[in-house]
UniProtKB/TrEMBL annotation, chain A:
Protein known as: ABC transporter ATP-binding protein
Chief localization: membrane
Coiled coil ranges: none
One GO term describing the cellular component: plasma membrane
Keyword check for Membrane: yes
From TrEMBL, chain B:
Keywords: Cell membrane, Membrane, Transmembrane, Transmembrane helix
PANTHER family assigned to the protein according to its UniProt record, in alphabetical order: ABC TRANSPORTER, PERMEASE PROTEIN, GUANOSINE ABC TRANSPORTER PERMEASE PROTEIN NUPP
UniProt topology in membrane: Multi-pass membrane protein
One GO CC annotation: plasma membrane
Record protein name field: ABC transporter permease
Localization (cell): Cell membrane
Source organism per UniProt: Parazoarcus communis SWub3 = DSM 12120
Pfam (any one): BPD_transp_2
Transmembrane parts of this sequence: 20-37, 57-80, 92-108, 114-137, 146-165, 197-215, 245-266, 278-311, 323-345
Length: 525, 354
């Protein structure tokens, strides 16, 4: 983990922000932000969710305007009025969520972002030239829906590079990449920086920032809590700047004993009706009582489809492929599967795991109506719903305005804690859980992980599907990888490494059915 | 400069104030309409709003008119809350009149006290059966229930016409397109001596209470609210979307059918080809002005009934066309939709500072 040498500091800064303040009706998102980026500098903006990173980037890219404060671009005061204006200035941005049209080809997508009506053949040649120069292999004539997530990100980057940006903003770029693809991305970014491009790198992953970035600005609660050189810091010291205290650690301990099989997938195959979804192919998996099984993978490799097939939101054609507590459940709907003793936490919290406009008490009824006796004779018992919701709130430290508060008034992390609480307090015999800590701050994430481990220790079977490899290694007993709708064999976590699983995430595991050339294709995805 | 700014939270106060604001704006626009037609606007409003309710008989007529509106609207509200858009209450209402009339004509000579309950049941069943068609097509083929239910209104209209011009025409009726008058045991009892207000009004109030219990207290009503607010959450929780569609449409159809029964067994006493005055369509406005809430629907149906009767009054006294009622209905819906903007937005003066 050696940081490259910092860039020469004789040039004037490319971008300077002075006292940037952004006030929304209910919250001050940025409060007196100062930041300076020099040409050739890779500058990290570090902070937890809700720290104000995204708002700041939106201000720089002209999506929104600051309430007050000054922005200087290459020594001149500017007001960026729109993203088009930002691109004109030489600012490019690669968003965390891609803005590509799936039904168009790569070159068509790129053409849409350029001014005027470019010639597609000529543009395709330029795309090839740029992608060769920066080691970003992209075929300009392929349709976007056929591309892997890593390839899509490359399209986004190439699209930015075509406009010769002098400042590139990368928003959480590695959250969708395999560890190997992260290496490749870092090489590209270093090459860009060496050519004089300034890079703003947004992330909450401390090790990446240490490896890649020359300087860092740390945000907490909309304010700058520190400027530092990551190479001179430790992850612990940066974490203290970021969250204001030490990183919490989970107590894992080895599983006490594993019992009977609670979830069995016996050759689960499912072709989705959606042409852009991933088909599941011959998935075999056993989850025993008293263990946590993790499924890793780059997003978009069948996780969503697998979860829907297990939860019953997508009913299968046959009964046997999904067996819950010994019952062949493939044809059962989610309510019937719950009755068998399964609880389920989906990855979307607002709108799927909870109804935004309804109170937390009503949202408790959503899945706990039957298990907690919140319904009597077809009518709702509001007092019982309220007291169950209060148990979730108190037991999981949910910060909210009480059981009557509407779900959408909670922050993402607090709502996630509420939903986890609602499912865990029903004492499930099998818990299936997607992205348990996605978008949750570090403190709450540790709490949720500990709750999952405690649940396991009480004899529950837990299946966790997550894109955060570190998280899976922290809490799981056994781990598998999903790639292109296929599931790898399960390995005890103690007998494998992040690197091995990273290779598997490309679809290359021992005995993998992927043919060699398609394997090579995903390998550099 | 005036501009709209999004509110951070939808305003609950505004969602209750909006119907009142719409009513006030409707009246003001109504006065403008009166003056444009060369009539005294104050006198027009007095005739429109106050004259109908100046005595007990007037009030009883108001409640009479409100009865079918209440019934149709509460049934529709159940579906609307789950985003099931039944626009065909008018047709379901007519099928209700047909079902009830069939029973009344078949048992014309009977004096059994079971006739009325049977008529209510037949009306509800016929209305629900009519609504079952869009439900079936929606759940089987994903056919849009808005279009199907709406088009079935015209089929129902023609069906009623065919009946009263054909097989059900009163043989002693001088060839008028109407059935024979119902027997005494097929007529709903009058509540207040000297008025036409009948037992159906109590049925409508009961329906409002039942609607409240169902929508706000029952587990099934809860599921329907979830389906309306967040379809993905309903799927996640395991609530069957098809069941919601069936319940929503059948409830709306049955309620409209009962409203139809109350009309033929109440003030009409027979089936004619002009059995509905657009109650099924007006009920859609009632349901929204009433915020899909039983108490709101009670008040909104009274307001809508007033617009119906007031329209007749100005027709009588001021020589204005009867379509003035429809103008007022349209204005009310227009202003309601306009006022609803302020639930999510607020007016700001001055330049944008975002």
């Amino acid at each position: 983990m050696t940081s490259p040498p910092p860039p020469s500091s004789t040039l004037p800064p490319r971008l300077v922000l002075r006292d940037i303040r952004k006030v929304y009706p209910t919250v001050v998102a940025n409060d007196g932000i100062n930041l300076s980026v020099a040409p050739g500098e890779i500058h990290a903006v570090l902070g937890e969710n809700g720290a104000g990173k995204s708002t700041l980037m939106k201000i720089i890219y002209g999506v929104t305007r600051p309430t007050s404060g000054e922005m200087q671009w290459e020594g001149q005061a500017v007001t960026v009025s729109s993203p088009a204006h930002a691109r004109e200035l030489g600012i490019g941005m690669v968003f965390q969520h891609f803005s590509l049209f799936e039904t168009l080809t790569v070159v068509e997508n790129v053409a849409l972002a350029l001014p005027g009506k470019p010639d597609l053949d000529e543009l395709a040649r330029r795309i090839e030239a740029v992608s060769q120069r920066y080691g970003l292999p992209v075929d300009p004539r392929r349709h976007v829906h056929a591309l892997s997530v890593g390839e899509r990100q490359r399209v986004e980057i190439v699209r930015c590079l075509l406009q010769n940006p002098r400042l590139l903003i990368m928003d959480e770029p590695t959250s969708v990449l395999t560890p190997q693809a992260v290496r490749k991305l870092f090489e590209t970014l270093r090459q860009l920086a060496a050519e004089g491009c300034a890079i703003l790198y947004i992330s909450h992953k401390l090790d990446e920032i240490q490896e890649l970035c020359h300087t860092a600005t740390v945000l907490r609660g909309g304010r700058v809590t520190g400027h530092c050189k990551p190479a001179e810091e430790t992850p612990e010291s940066m974490a203290r700047l970021m969250i204001g205290k030490d990183l919490p650690v989970c107590e894992h301990g080895s599983p006490t004993h594993t019992g009977e099989i609670r979830l069995r997938l016996a050759g689960l195959s499912h072709a989705s009706a959606d042409p852009f979804a991933t088909d599941l192919r011959d998935i075999h998996l056993d989850v025993h009582a008293g263990e946590i099984v993790g499924i890793a993978g780059v997003s978009g490799n069948g996780q969503q489809e697998l979860l829907r097939a297990i939860s019953g939101e997508e009913v299968l054609a046959e009964k046997f492929p999904v067996q819950i507590l010994g019952v062949e459940a493939g044809r059962l709907n989610p309510g019937q599967r719950r009755k068998l003793g399964m609880c389920f936490v989906p990855e979307e919290r607002l709108g799927r795991g909870a109804v935004p406009t309804m109170s937390l008490a009503d949202n408790a009824i959503l899945t706990a109506a039957k298990t907690q006796g919140l319904v009597a004779g077809g009518f709702l018992s509001f007092s019982r719903a309220r007291s169950f919701a209060e148990r979730c709130i108190n037991g999981f430290g949910v910060k909210c305005g009480g059981a009557a508060a509407p779900a959408r008034s909670l922050s993402g992390g607090n709502l996630q804690k509420f939903i986890m609480g609602r499912e865990i307090l029903q004492s499930p015999r099998l818990l299936v859980c997607a992205q348990p800590t996605w978008g949750v701050d570090v403190g709450a994430a540790a709490f949720i992980r500990q709750a999952l481990i405690d649940l396991r220790n009480r004899g529950c079977a837990v299946l966790v599907i997550s894109e955060e490899l570190d998280e899976l290694f922290e809490i799981c007993d056994r781990i598998a990888v999903i790639a292109k709708g296929r599931l790898s064999p399960l390995r005890p976590v103690a007998e494998t490494t992040v690197e091995d699983i990273g290779v598997w995430m490309s679809g290359l595991w021992p005995g993998s059915e992927l043919s060699t050339d398609s394997a090579a294709e995903v390998a550099h995805a | 400069m005036l501009r709209l700014e999004p509110r951070p939270e939808a305003s609950r106060l505004m969602s209750y104030l909006s119907p009142l604001l719409a009513a006030v704006l409707t009246l003001m626009a109504g006065m403008a309409v009166f003056s444009m037609l060369g009539k005294d606007p104050v006198e027009g409003l007095r005739l429109f709003l106050l004259n109908p309710v100046k005595d007990l008989y007037g009030v009883s007529e108001l409640l009479l008119k409100a009865t079918p509106l209440m019934l149709c609207a509460i049934g529709l509200a159940v579906g609307f809350r789950a985003n099931i858009w039944n626009i065909g209450a008018e047709g379901q209402f007519m099928l209700g009149t047909v079902g009830a009339t069939g029973v009344a004509l078949y048992f014309q000579e009977s004096d059994s006290s079971l006739i009325l309950p049977t008529m209510v049941f037949a009306g509800a069943l016929a209305g629900a059966a009519w609504a079952a068609i869009p439900a079936l097509l929606k759940t089987r083929f994903n056919a849009n229930e808005i279009l199907v239910s709406l088009m079935l209104v015209y089929v129902a209209q023609l069906f009623v016409s065919w009946l009263v011009f054909g097989p059900w025409k009163d043989p002693d009726g001088f060839n008028f397109p109407q059935t024979a008058m119902f027997g005494d045991h097929a007529l709903l009892p009058v509540l207040v001596e000297g008025t036409r207000l009948h037992f159906g009004f109590l049925i409508a109030l009961t329906a409002l209470l039942a609607g409240y219990a169902f929508m706000n207290r029952s587990y099934t009503g809860f599921k329907m609210r979830v389906a309306g607010e967040a379809a993905d959450a309903a799927r996640y929780a395991g609530f069957s979307a098809n069941r919601m569609i069936w319940i929503g449409l059948l409830t709306g159809g049955a309620a409209a059918g009962i409203a139809g029964m109350c009309e033929v067994a109440g003030p009409m006493g027979q089936l004619t080809d002009k059995v509905s005055l657009g109650y099924g369509f007006a009920a859609i406005i009632v349901a929204f002005v009433g915020r899909l809430n039983p108490v709101g629907i009670l008040f909104a149906s009274l307001l809508m009934a007033l617009l119906y009767i007031g329209g007749e009054q100005v027709q009588q006294y001021m020589n204005l066309p009867s379509s003035i009622s429809l103008v007022f209905q349209g204005l009310l819906l227009f202003f309601l939709l306009g006022s609803d903007v302020f639930i999510h937005y607020r007016l700001k003066f001055g330049r944008a500072t975002a």
